[in-house]
Structures are given as structure tokens and as C-alpha cells.
Design a protein that fits this description.
elongated, 11 strands, about 25% strand, 5-stranded antiparallel β-sheet, about 40% helix, 8 helices
């Protein structure tokens, strides 16, 4: 008897570890929220038999069902945000385990929904705050165990972080797309570098002003690009190279000057360069260089 219990415990541990490993691989392989939720529910359903498992997300004042895996075609139960079980789990960031739920004093039935025999609720926590929850129901059958609870909490912790990263990625991608659209529509040529001085962005206008192939610049060191492709075009290459070298050694400095290109191009560009800072921490994250064509202005001044 003892050996069989040990064997079952070992099999259970192997199942849990395998489930966590598979879930981790699935969650790490995507930044699509729907795929993340499918991986989460699939991992739980594979390890813990149940009638339905559903992800609920907090949407305004209600807990909306985001995705559900269940037997049959019945829709997942609607847990209002004010429902005591969900409310308590979300507010306190703690799980709820009710076996023989209808007889439990904490159980509150849902109007118009069949009552489950066993109920397991695990919040989705990110940074100590719950953004929703995972609910498992058994209408009949065996009890949910503490091992079931621990396994769901482990998978939910992975999924919550991945979902949070997916949201941040979507927000960052959207902000980056908006910024790119703005920078591609202005009349100034723009270069942005990282802390190491490598070019991370350059707009098409820069290529037009300086006659450069913009895609070829990405990833190259800005000083190397300037030395090889920009400085030779100027009327005073030694002066410009000395200024650029000094700025490379003093990354916190600002500079505004003019760059006169060769007679074949005939342009006069005003060049601004300065550090880019993180708006929250104030730390330097790179540099920005802006070229503005002031040729007509200078010609009018001379005239």
C-alpha cells in the first residue's frame, strides 16, 4: 500500500512538472493574448480533469469570460464583479477552493447557472494586483486537491506575467508605430542611437538630405557612419569630425551647429544633437541627432 501511494505521488509530481514545462514553453513562444490564454487553459485541462475551465478578465465592473474550455456547447458562467467569491479572490489576490460547494457557507450561487459540486478560483496576479482569474468547476466527481490548487497557481503565475508582457508589448508597439509615423512625416532628418552609440532609427528624410541608404545604417555605430559617409561630404571635414569625436566622449552634452555640404549638394544643414532620457528615471538611453535644411534661409540672409 505504501509503495503504491508513493508511486501515485511520484506520477503526480511527474505530471505536474511536465505540465509546468509544457505550459512554460507554450507561454514563452507567443505574445498573442489569445494564444497565451489557450496555452494556459490547455495545460490546466490536460493535468486536471474538470467540466469547464475559464479565464475571466476584469472589464469595468464585471468579470468577463475571455476564453473557456468545457464539455458541450453551454456558455461559461457569468461571474459579476460584485460576486463575493470573485470579488474576494481579486481584491485579496488569494485562491478559493470549495469542495462540496453548495454546502459551504462561503458559496454564493449564480442566478440561472447550474451549481457546481466543486469549485476552484485562482487570481491572475501581476505586480501584486489581480487582473482577472481562472475558474475550474466540477459538476460531479472527485474533490479538487491542494496539489490541483498549487499547480493551477503555478501555471496562472506564468500566464499572468506573459499576459502583462503581451499588453506592454502591444502598447509599446503601438507607441513605436505612432512615433515612427510622426518622424517619417516631418521635414527634418532624424537619427536615434542607443547607449552604445549604435543607430536604432533613421527616417527617410535623413537619406534625402545626406544621400544615404537608411536601411544600411541601422545597427551601425553613429560615429563610424558619420566618419565614413557624412564627414566626407562637408566643406570642413576635420572640424566636424573633431566635434563629433568630442560629443562621443561627452554623451551628456548638447550641441547645435551648421554643416555645410559640398558644392555638388549645396545644402546647409543645421544639426542638433543631445541625449535622450528616460522620462521616469532620467537615465540616458541614447542620443538624438536632428538635421534641418536651412539652405534657403541662409541664401535669403546673404541676399
Amino acid at each position: 500500500t505504501a509503495r503504491r501511494e508513493q508511486q501515485r505521488a511520484l506520477e503526480r509530481q511527474v505530471t505536474e512538472l511536465t505540465t509546468l514545462h509544457v505550459a512554460g514553453l507554450a507561454l514563452a513562444d507567443t505574445l498573442e493574448p489569445t494564444e497565451i490564454q489557450q496555452a494556459l487553459l490547455g495545460a490546466i485541462r490536460a493535468a486536471i480533469p474538470c467540466d469547464d475551465v475559464t479565464i475571466y478578465s476584469l472589464d469595468g465592473e464585471e468579470m468577463q469570460a475571455s476564453l473557456s474550455l468545457q464539455l458541450g456547447d453551454a456558455p461559461p458562467p457569468l461571474f459579476p464583479h460584485g460576486h463575493p467569491l470573485i470579488e474576494w479572490s481579486v481584491q485579496h489576490g488569494q485562491s478559493v477552493l470549495l469542495n462540496d460547494a453548495p454546502s459551504d457557507p462561503e458559496f454564493v450561487p449564480l442566478i440561472g447557472q447550474p451549481e457546481p459540486l466543486h469549485l476552484l478560483i485562482v487570481p491572475l496576479l501581476t505586480g501584486g494586483r489581480a487582473s482577472g482569474g481562472v475558474v475550474l468547476r466540477r459538476m460531479i466527481g472527485d474533490l479538487f486537491t491542494l496539489n490541483d490548487l498549487r499547480l493551477v497557481e503555478s501555471i496562472a503565475a506564468q500566464a499572468a506575467v506573459t499576459l502583462h508582457n503581451a499588453r506592454l508589448h502591444a502598447e509599446t508597439s503601438g507607441a513605436a508605430t505612432d512615433l515612427r509615423a510622426v518622424l517619417e512625416s516631418i521635414q527634418q532628418g532624424v537619427i536615434m542611437t542607443d547607449r552604445a552609440g549604435r543607430i536604432r532609427f533613421a527616417n527617410r528624410r535623413l537619406g534625402e538630405l545626406l544621400g544615404l541608404d537608411v536601411p544600411e545604417l541601422i545597427g551601425r555605430h553613429a560615429l563610424e557612419v558619420a566618419e565614413q559617409l557624412i564627414v566626407p561630404q562637408t566643406r570642413d571635414p576635420k572640424v566636424l569630425l573633431a566635434r563629433l569625436t568630442w560629443l562621443e566622449e561627452h554623451p551628456e552634452e548638447f550641441s547645435t551647429d551648421e554643416v555645410a555640404l559640398t558644392r555638388t549638394t549645396g545644402r546647409i544643414l543645421e544639426r542638433y544633437t543631445g541625449p535622450m532620457r528616460d522620462p521616469d528615471s532620467g537615465a540616458t538611453v541614447g542620443r538624438i541627432v536632428v538635421f534641418t535644411d536651412v539652405t534657403e534661409e541662409r541664401q535669403l540672409e546673404r541676399a
